[in-house]
Amino acid sequence: MSQNNTDQFFKSTVLGHPAGLFVLFFTEMWERFSFYGMRSLLILFLTASFTDGGWEWTRENASALFGSYVGLVYLSTMLGGYFADKVIGFRWAVVVGATLMTLGHASMAVETEFSIYLGLVLLVFGNGFFKPNMTSIVSEMYKDRPEKKDGAYTLFYMGVNAGAFFGILLCGYLGEKVGWTYGFGLAGIFMFFGMLQFWLSQDIFGDIGLKPSKESKAKAEALDTDKRNPFSPIQLAAIAFSSILALLWLVNDPASKISGGKVNIFSFLGPNGNSIAIVSALVVFIILLVYRFTQYSKITKEKLIAVTFFAFLTIFFWAIFEQSPNSLTIFASDYTDRVLTGNWSVVFLVMNSLITILPLVIITWVLILLFKQTFKFYALANIILSVSFIIIWAIAIWMLTKDYYTAGYLSLSDSTLQALKIDKVTTALTEVPATWFSTLNSLFIISLAPLFSKWWESKYNPSANLKYGIGMGLLALGMACVAFGASGIEAGAKTASVSMIWLILVYLFHTMAELCISPVGLSYVSKLVPARMIAFMFGVWYLAVAIGMKGAGMFGENIDKIANEHGLSYFFWMLTIISIVVALFSVAMTPVIKKLMHGVR
């Protein structure tokens, strides 16, 4: 192969990929640890009773705030992508984002009304700067190796889910079993570790992600001969109008519900003011998007249309998939039998030990491989990374010790209990935390990601549309499992004792669906979009994700209404049918989209 300016990254490899990919792997892992750790607790914290330290909100209000929060998290990537592209570069954007998120988690750990809201705001902006620019760095590293991008993104996604797994497992455990403050605070500590590790290792990325200079901009423009399409004043005004309206709607939607209508920015538009506002914003944005596409060269235009098609499908995927921290967590908490006795208690304790220790062993092994390649040049970064893993190992062992003691299988003296900060129990009990089920998604990702990575690199690699069709079909299968499991719950029931097997099956099928859609979707953005637009278009992609996230919250808001009238099973059957329709639509559009992609696989 002829030499190119990214060959330098492949001179020092880990598992066949540049060592720099694994620096990003661990940075993203700690960011996802903090994000998913806090997210797993948010709905439970908001709906928990005052006596349990929560806010005792209704599920509708909690879902409304949750939907707006995760929607704003992904919408803010537009801002972060722009600043990285034009002003501060990818690297500084990652550091700014990580700093804001560290402060956000610290604020939430204080647990006052003001600090919780302030923390959510800081997390929104922090994610906006961090998220699109990590994937942009990966894209730049592989720009001359497109055949390895799918595998790289899948491995990168494995790091994402390793962080999510440990974040949900440990932050969720501490939040539910010890105190909300500990769960929120732990998330911030590891975000701080991730930021330090990235900053101290940044030279491994060469010139990628540096602050844009006149020379770098001129070089990028010289390499990119595509037709220019600058924004006119009218187009900028349309963007501002739709963006401001959408932002106000995302804030006003939960605010108007939580305040009982006392706070309502769009009250002047009548009782349907919220709906009128968001529909107006979407109509203006779609008109602008269609017009902009007509201004590009034919090939670029058609590739952007293909990206937009996949982004449209992604909206439905995330709206249904993100029931995990919402309606599925409520299902786990209120409708699932989580108390285990006898042999089942032993089975769970052993299984939980294995799924905690084995992933830690695997990720520690990857860490050692990275050390062998980078310790000589980035010793301090590796030492900080080592310290973070020592802390994770300590917390994991403490958690397992507490579980075995609480279940009655381990005897500890009073002095040991005091030293370990474990409360003394008189009645043995094994109760699976409601957040534990969410860890299954990340566990299955860690287990299955290498297999899917090999599949995408083989001659049996399906087309983009078929991947989406398979993914949405698996999503439907998962929802059908929980719908069937909930079939015995009567309409209006507030509690039940459904078997845990249904939730386990949901997360298995949904994980396989995620592997077919999420990392693959990111890969297609990087393949189809011109280099000068990459960070911004990742932002546009995350805009679609934001719409899906808010859609997930809106679905969750209606779970009680639908369950009271038709039964809980009806709610999940609705999501099953939507998934099947989208899957069939994706497969049917294969010939059209294949033509628009111009040979990109």
In the CATH hierarchy, what is the architecture of one domain at level 2? Up-down Bundle
Q: How would the global form be characterised?
A: globular
Tally the helices. 21
The portion of residues forming beta strands comes to under 5%
CA-CA gap between termini: 20 Å
CATH topology of one domain: Growth Hormone, Chain: A
Sheet with the most strands? 2 strands, antiparallel
| Poorly predicted segments | none
Number of strands: 4
Calculate Rg over CA atoms. 24 Å
Average pLDDT rating: 88
Structural class, from secondary structure content? mainly alpha
CATH H-level superfamily title of one domain: MFS general substrate transporter like domains
Order of strands across the widest beta sheet?
A: 1-2
SSE order? EEHHHHHHHHHHHEHHHEHHHHHHH
| Percent of residues in helices | over 70%
CATH class of one domain: Mainly Alpha
Q: How would you portray this structure in words?
A:
It is a single chain. It is built from 21 helices and four strands. By secondary structure, the protein is an all-alpha fold. Strand 1 (13-14) and strand 2 form a beta hairpin. Helix 10 (298-321) runs parallel beside helix 18 (534-557). The protein starts with 12 loop residues before the first strand and ends in a 5-residue tail after the last helix. One of its GO terms (molecular function) is peptide transmembrane transporter activity.
